[in-house]
Write a structure and sequence with these properties.
Blueprint: E1 14-17, H1 25-31, E2 36-41, H2 49-61, E3 64-68, H3 77-90, E4 94-99, H4 101-116, E5 125-126, E6 136-140, E7 152-157, E8 162-167, E9 176-179, H5 189-207, H6 214-236, H7 241-261, H8 265-277, H9 281-296, H10 301-310, H11 320-337, H12 354-364, H13 376-386
Parallel strand pairs: 1-9, 2-3, 2-4, 4-6, 5-8, 6-9
Antiparallel strand pairs: 7-8
Length: about 375
Amino acid sequence: MSPTELSHFFCPTSIHIGVGSYRKVTDSLRRWKVSHLMVLLDAALLKSSFYADIENLLKEEVEHYEIYTDIEPDPSAHTVEKAYQVCRDSGATVLLAIGGGSTIDVAKAVGILATNGGKIHDYEGIEKFSTPPLPLIAIPTTAGTGSEVSGSCVITDTERNLKMSIRHASLNPADVAILDPLALRTVPQHVAAHSGLDAFVHAFESYISRQANPFTDAINLHALTLISGSIRPFTANRNNLTASLDMLCGSALAGMAFGQTGLGNVHCMARFVGSYFHLSHGLSNALCLPHVAAFNLPANSAKYAKVAQAMGEHVQGMPERLAAHKALESIRSLCTDLDIPSRLREAGVQEDKLDEMAELCVRANYNRWNPRDTSLHDFQRLFHEAF
């Protein structure tokens, strides 16, 4: 950024880190004097030993807690409405989310409705609500979205067939985040890979964003180092607690930054790929990543060279452009090692929708953040090259 540009950095979330940090949930419950709690839980964890340990703590600390598990991937506004009704009927004054980004995003949306009223559609966009949501404790069980610390939540509008982004840098992050690698032990291998690449894309796109600043640069470079260094061993063995903790921290670091810098064309394209063809957000990002990364390189080869270094490439002494291309090689290698399909068609994307999605990308106006100006023709070319 230029010295004459104004920028900002803010992180309101209190974060507990490490093996067994789930026990810190009691500190918040006592501080807020919680008697009625709503637990939004990934259904796959209901009979897990990790949740059983947390539930034992809840039984000691809370008079009444209501458990809600009916949350699908890429959750819809209908799911948010149902969860909100449960929250209202239970009299909950605090929310506890235990799950991946979908679970945490639903909890955020419920918290907004509980104090601001209306429908979640009313808050699509940036800072469309002003009353703080219900207090939220978030325990992520995937390392990907960074939703526990980010200022956004993403909810699918099934009627319009698109994903709504509800953003508020200061009011939308969880009040407390607990990063416990014990929570990741049951993550399926493909989920670990896809969500981990989502975290990588957050850090990468935030780092090269037009809105990046020295604080977000430092955070994102370390996030890239943690994620690229640990995602392979983490995906291979979710009981590797060191790799798991690195992934959780890398994901959270990127989550702190991208809500303030914005993201780029990878997320722009993936937003519509995911909603049109019902692919996970992480896989949609991974499919688009190598193609968009190559497109954006001319806009900031110096930062790409630093990305290559963060990913462990030996680029010292290389000309900047050669070092920058090492980042592209490293990204392609990462996707290959994690079994990401090399083409959109291999994941079920249909060619007749590519130009339609390109038009939607232009309307979404990610040129505010993406480092390289992107026209309709550019998006069409990117989709067809990726196909």
